[in-house]
Amino acid sequence: MKTEEERMYLFYKVVNKIIKILHVESYLTDKTFLKIQFYISNKKKLNLKNPKSYNEKIQWLKLYDHNPLYPKIVDKYDVRKYVKDKIGEEYLIKCYGIYNSPNEIIFNEVPNSFVIKCTHDSGNVYICNDKNRIDKNKLENVYEGLKKNYFYKSREWPYKNLNPRLIIEENLSRNGTPPVDYKFMCFFGKVKFIQLHEDRFSNHKSYLYDVEGKPTNFNNVGNEEDNFHAPKLDMKLISKMISLAEKMANDFIHVRVDFYCVDNNIYFGELTLY
User: Fold this and answer.
1) Are 114 and 170 in contact (CB under 8 A)?
2) Structural domain count, the chain
3) Using CB atoms within 10 A of its CB, is residue 255 exposed (0-12), middle (13-18) or buried (19+)?
4) Whether residue 164 is found in the same domain as residue 185
5) What is the pLDDT of residues 213-232, one digit of tens each?
6) Distance CA 59, CA 57 (A)
7) Is 85 exposed, middle or buried (0-12, 13-18, 19+ CB in 10 A)?
8) What domain range is 156 assigned to?
9) 87, part of any domain
10) C-beta of residue 128 within 8 angstroms of C-beta of residue 186
11) H or E, element range at 96
12) N or C: which end of the chain has fewer CB within 10 A?
């Protein structure tokens, strides 16, 4: 005999499969969609009346926190103005071009190494270290992102009406290795946790620290048996990044602010709301 919890889980799985087969995701209300996805991921009902867990509160923010600034800061090109106004343009990665379609790109005018991605998408990035050896499949995969609307994947409303474009930026990789990614989890304008990500596109590892640079023993990726051997943080660098992150975070209930550090220079990565 299956338990009530197991029956509910199977029910939501079947409903979700039917929805995908019929391609009716866009007809569901945001609340219904999130309730189904939450149950499948967490095997418990989504409590929106009194959210307690971090994941529940993120779903609540998707539904009820409609700050008009959000669509501007999730767009990977438009956010540059926000960063410039908040902390200065010296923290921006050099932008080589913004394009409405692949046909507008003239690769002869682009440096030998570069990064290309969609302005409205998440995670779909091609890092080119030598444009004479472009991986056309990876490039086409980025182009395919122009057809996607990220909103329908997880109901993150700021993405719904974004204009899909392509952006080409400076490649911060050194010797083919992307820079370490520093992510600052901010709540009501204050940094509470720090994530460090290494080798994101190969042997990905991540570590979570408190604001004093002490590693925690949870939310680590790729190093589950080595939680307490996290790299030691340069607290002078971290203190500077925290100051910058909090200057940008004071407009939000919750936001993650990402930075890179390359050749002793700090660069803004992105702002993530959910």
Assistant:
1) yes
2) 3
3) buried
4) no
5) 999 876 555 555 555 578 99
6) 5
7) exposed
8) 94-169
9) no
10) no
11) strand 95-99
12) N
